[in-house]
Amino acid sequence: MKKFLPLLLIFSLIIGGCTQPQITPDLATFLEADKTEEIPYTDDFKCLEFAERLYFNAKEGGLKVGIVFVFFENSNNYHALNVFDTDEGLIFVDCSTRRDAIASVEIGRFYSTSYSKTTIASIGEGSVSDYKIIWEY
Length: 137
Hints:
30% strand; Beta Polymerase, domain 2; 7 strands
């Protein structure tokens, strides 16, 4: 699965100036080594558990990481993922989709994730109404 990370790095460098900051080499190295996304998504291990696992692994690795709770218009549901504070800016990462993905979290827009050159809408809840970042979890 990690063979897609170099493509993710190249893709993020191509679109870096558009809507997402560039993924940094430290973050790319960490995500390549981390195996959180390989855990099966189950009723007992959902988006929050993925975000918590990645959070603690990244903290242990010395990265500045937070957990993000994304809320959707006309819904009581939320989605949890991670955010990394890098020299390039905030980079949102969702590892609950079996591959590490760069996420787009913008109020008023649909939540989406990008792997290499493919963008998919991961959450069918609608537009993002708000999000909250927790740096110390």
